[in-house]
Amino acid sequence: MTPHGPVEELQRPRAGGLAAAVLACTLLPGCATFRSYDAEMQQALALTGAGQAGRAVQVLQSSRRSSDTALLYHLELGELERLQGSYRASQNAWAVADQQIQRWEAGIDAAAATGFAAAWLINDKVRPYEGHDYEKVLLTTCMAMNFLARGDLANARVAIKQTHEREAVIAALRERQYQAIQEQARQRGASTNLRDLNGYPVEEIDNPAVNALRNSYQNALSHTLAGFVYEALGEPGLAAAGYRQALELRPRSPVLEVALAGLDARVLAPDDGLTDTLIVLETGFAPARRSRRFPLPIPIDDEVVVFPLSVPIIESIGSPEVPVEVRLDDGPALTPDEIANIDSMARRALKDEMPGILLRSVVRATTRAAAQVQMRRAADAAHSKGDDSKAGWLDAGATLLALGSVAIESADERVWRSLPAQVYVARGRLPRGVHSMTVASSAGEHRVTVDVSGRHAFIALRLLRGNLYAMLPEAPLPGGRQPTRTAAIAPEIAFVNRQEVVP
Predict the structure, then answer these.
(1) Which of 31, 133, 139, 263 could, after both became Cys, cross-link 217 (CB 3.0–4.6 A)?
(2) What gap in Å lies between CA 42 and CA 284, rounded to an integer?
(3) 124: Cβ–Cβ under 8 A, 6 or more apart, which residues?
(4) Cβ of 442: how many Cβ atoms within 10 Å?
């Protein structure tokens, strides 16, 4: 992959200033430039996969090192606390994360501008982490699930509304951003075509499953929850819209087709003593991003300089369990239906982000190569004038610049790792009371005791490497009533007032 056109069309910086900046980064051992988020999360993920989410929380808390991963820290912490059923602690962590994302939505994060500028010179790890688009949407979706587990339909409704609004913000922003990146690439004469990068595993992010997604952030899980929440609140019009949107994102889903077809009958039916129960089954871990280095030949006048270019690749970790059926006591089995594939969403996000990543990477590599050539040519000129001392310093600077560039060139690996890889749903009308629930999966059977009551109930389960986490309800959902006045207030006010954030 080479720049299109002469290097002069890209940035040609002052060699000394660039060398100083690059070398300064190599002297900072705690700098984000050298950190691997994926490596730092390995122990916490291993403990979580072994059924020890409590210990994973301790590891996560002890390994927190700086503010550059503050958003990710709270995303991960909220998920690990949720797996233990610690809904209040989970919401506290996610409330902090949501406030940061709201700042991004409002465009008032001043620190981001400095980080974005530095990324053109050093690497993408120096950018403040703003979250990938699918993570932003799944955050409020997960918060809604916490509210459902706590029996709080009103705030679940607020979280669902905020999810819809966030999708709209992302859609408008990304369209503008895509056009801006293409224009920058044209002006700088740099390629943003992934297939021009020799050796990159393109099939990992450009395949039928990834390309079938409308985008990286909309998912049928969020809209299925919307339908369920509005239905439980006695709002069939909004519930139908939620189910229809979910069906558009996940066509021919049996669970969604039944949910939409029987909506009016369920809302109008008298209480028959059964509980309409939505079961969400999550499996595995979201995929990792790993930095991989590729050589980039850069033509500069009459010579070619080979510089390293690092970009992220995406890797799935293991094969998640596939839930086959859910049985309650000795009753009929419910068949889970895959409703969201977060693994594919993460891949689509990387595919959509890659033009910007490539543009920054090519400009960085070309800028450093040009600076190196300038320093060596200046050294040659000094030698020809007999100034061997100056020439020696310039030669050493060019060599150190090359070595420093290799040392700091690394792709950004930050991604919300504790999210599930796939999400399934099952739904059935269950007798009220305590039951033994069995989940049969590709890895065996898991059993958990559940207690359902009221007209509607929500249960979330997570299958991880042969272990089962059960996020069971703390309180029953109120049924068949209109939303309260509180649930209709602005989302930012609702969250501040009711997420029980501990100072």
Answers:
(1) 133
(2) 14
(3) 357, 360, 411, 412
(4) 12
Instruction: Round to whole Å and give the CA distance between 188 and 135.
Output: 31
Q: How far apart are CA 83 and CA 93, in angstroms?
A: 13
DSSP assignment of 304-315 equals EEEEEEEEEEEE
Is residue 16 classed as helix, strand or coil in its secondary structure?
helix
Report the C-alpha gap between 281 and 437 in whole angstroms.
13
Mapping DSSP to helix (H, G, I), strand (E, B) and coil, where does residue 341 land? strand
Q: What does each C-alpha distance from 362 to 114, 121, 144, 413 come to in angstroms?
A: 20, 11, 41, 18
Place of tokens 């033509």: 299
Q: How far is CA 218 from the centre of its chain?
A: 12
What span, in angstroms and rounded, lies between the C-alpha atoms of 28 and 65?
14
Tokens (6 digits) for 478 = 């109120």
What is the C-alpha to C-alpha distance for residues 123 and 311, in angstroms, rounded to an integer?
A: 10
> What pLDDT, on a 0 to 100 scale, did the predictor assign at position 122?
65
Most trustworthy range by pLDDT among 3-7, 275-279, 327-331: 275-279
CA distance 280 to 275: 16
To which H or E segment does residue 433 belong? strand 433-441
User: How many other C-beta atoms are found inside a 10 Å radius of the C-beta of residue 52?
Assistant: 16
Please report, for residues 69, 131, 146, the alpha-carbon distance to residue 78 in angstroms, rounded to integers and kept in the order given: 14, 15, 10
Structural Rg of the chain based on CA atoms: 26
How far apart are alpha carbons 492 and 489 in whole angstroms? 9
Per-residue b or e along 182-199, where b marks 16 or more CB atoms closer than 10 Å to that residue's CB? eebbeebbbbbebeebee
* Numbers of helices and strands, H then E, in the chain: 16, 11
58-92 burial, b if ≥16 CB within 10 A, otherwise e? Answer: ebbeeeeeeebbebbbbbbbbbbbbbbbbbebbbb
Q: What are the extents of the domains in the chain? A: 7-498
Q: Per-residue b/e over 385-424, b at no fewer than 16 CB within 10 Å?
A: eeeeeebeebbebbebbbebbeebbbbbbbbbbbbbbbbb
Q: Which long-range contacts (CB under 8 A, 24 or more apart) does 114-119 make?
A: 119/360
Question: Taking the model in full, what pTM does it have?
Answer: 0.85
Express each pLDDT in 265-275 by its tens digit. Answer: 999 999 999 99
Residue whose entry in the numeric block shows the structure tokens 């984000």:
32
**pLDDT tens profile 61-110:** 988 766 557 899 999 999 999 999 999 999 999 999 999 999 988 875 54
